[in-house]
Structure formats: C-alpha cells, structure tokens
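We store amino acids, tokens; thus:
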Amino acid sequence: MPSDLIERVGEVMREASATEIEPRWNQLRAGDIRSKSAGELVTVADEAAERVISTGLRALTPLIPVVGEEACAANPGLLAQLTGDSAWLVDPVDGTSNFIDGGTDWSVMVALVRDGETCLSWIWRPLADRMYVAELGAGAECNGTPIQRGPAPAEEAQLRGAVFTRFFDRERAATIASNSSRFGSVVEGSCAGFDYPALVEGGRDFLLFWRSLPWDHAPGTLLVHESGGFSRRLDGAPYRPAEESFGLLSAADEETWHRAKGLLTPT
C-alpha cells in the first residue's frame, strides 16, 4: 500500500476528529444523543464524523465502497459489501458511551478489507495524540515507531486482562466470574479502540469479547497480529470481518491465548 495513502487516511481521520468530535467532547446536549437500537446510543458527533471520513475515503479511492457503523445502523444491507474485492470500514467514535460520559477512552477507527481479510487499519486516539497503524505483513506502529508486543508473564497469577461481559450468556458469565481470580487482574473492558492498543503496548495480556462487529474488531485484531500477538475466534478460527459469529479472544501470544481460553470459557 502506498505510504502516501496511509498518511492521507490518517489525515482524514484527524480532520474528522478535530472538526466534528473533539469540539463536542464534554459539550453534548440532550438533543445530541439518541438511541439507535436497544441499549445502543449514537451522538451527532458519531454521525457527523462518519460523513466526513466517508467523504474523504471516497475522494481517495472512488471505487472502494465505505461501510460505516452509523450507515449500517440505518441500512444493514451495506454489510454485504464486505464480501466484495475491497471495502472500507469506519467506526467514527468507538467508545460512544465513554464519549457521552465525558471519559477519555474513545477513538476513531478505520480499516481496509480486501478479499475478506483486513489488510490495513488505523486507530486514532486524539486525546492521547496516538495514531496506531497496522499493515498486513508489514508490521504495526504508533506515531511512526514500530510496535512489538513483548512476552506475557509466565504465571497465570500475573496476567492482566479485560473482558466485555455485557453480552455473555449466563453460563459463560459464571465461568468468567468463577475463574477470574486466578489471574493477576481481570477488568471490565472499556472499548475496542482503547483495549487493543493497551494489549499491544503491554497494559493488557488478553482481551475477551462476545460480540465481534467488524468496525469494532477489524482494526484491533490486525494491530494485534502485526505487533506479534494472537487473535482468534473461540473455536480457533481466524477473525474475518464479514463472517457473523460470536466470541473473540486476543492475547499477547498463542500460549497466553490458550491459557485465557481454558479459564474463561465453559468446557
């Protein structure tokens, strides 16, 4: 992928954040927030930023369709475009609930999918001034500096993880609650755009999700893979954005993945 395109996509994301998202952080009014589905909120910042990013991506690559989270909320049929030759994925504000609450754990995410596989991804965390970029087969970096995930602790009692418990069924939730004490710490996940970078930079050793929506996980799983980590469905299959399934575990390495899976999932 030409390096100038990688840079220009990052510029599009920064522009959308600077003009549509950051000015609304801690400034949202009641009319700026609405429910788009049961338990799911959207803000004017999400919608405006997605328009800016989608317009920018179409200008850069007119022949590649854009699949945005908010556009899909209105027209789920857009997801079918992920099965074509190429498609952009856009998550304009990952961590919308955190954003609404005035928290800092939110990000802007974009990924390019080709032939069903994520080949490029960007995660922009404006409040931390950190841009994460990963390219399939070419590695990962943050602000231009290569990222290589170091080894996880050898002892389970030293491992740190995050689990997104909201959508787990009763049996899985009970297994997680019962076995979490065997790790050093297991916290509730914040959002994909915060926790995937935390994993590759050593703040987490594993992440467990139940839902695996493409705009949430295509960017982060590629970042993990290209920094030396390991991401798989709970059945061991690689993550593919267009495939509808549940259960996604990422870890610092394959051994840690198996240790976390063995303790956190029912047998």
